[in-house]
Amino acid sequence: LGLGGPPVGDVMAPLGFSIVVVYVVVTEIGLLSILIAQLALSYEHVSEHKEGYARMNKAYVCVEGESVLPRYLRRRFYEKCGFDKPLPFDNGDLGPAGGIQVLEPAYIRATSKYVPDRILR
To answer: What is the pLDDT of residue 115?
Structure first.
């Protein structure tokens, strides 16, 4: 008699499946691009601060090695280092005690990247 229209389920099944596939592909591409951006930013952050991380790791290793030494050896090492003597900054200008002075080469100040900071952190 033809009272109803064509069966909708048979026509919509391939269309619905293709819409779901397109949605999943677009979503995966978007999430993958967000992941790549996050990895790039974290790599940039680590590469900017790699010297600081290396020094922090070196200090950690030194403290761990120092904690193994007996107390009398540590005390003798500290007395040899002379941490109680003030460090001279310039002629006649004595700085604080408790450090080891390392003189820098004169050519370092000639570069454009030089920042006049004398404290090694």
So the answer is: 67
CA atoms of 118 and 121, how far apart (whole Å): 9
How far apart CA 111 and CA 51 sit, in angstroms, is 19
Query: In whole angstroms, what is the distance from residue 53 CA to residue 17 CA?
Result: 51
Amino acid at 7: P
How far apart are the C-alpha atoms of 64 and 22, rounded to whole Å? 56
pLDDT, tens only, 90-111 = 777 777 777 777 777 777 666 6
Q: How far apart are CA 11 and CA 6, in angstroms?
A: 9
Cβ neighbors of 87 (< 8 A, separation 6 or more) are 94, 95, 96, 97, 99, 101
DSSP bridge partners of 88: 94
- pTM for this prediction: 0.40
If you write DSSP's letter for every residue of 63-86 in order, what string do you get? HHHHHHS-HHHHHHHHHHHTTTSE
pLDDT at 118: 60
The answer to whether residues 63 and 81 touch, using CB atoms and an 8 Å cutoff, is: no
Vertex 26: Cα angle to 22 and 27 (nearest 5): 115
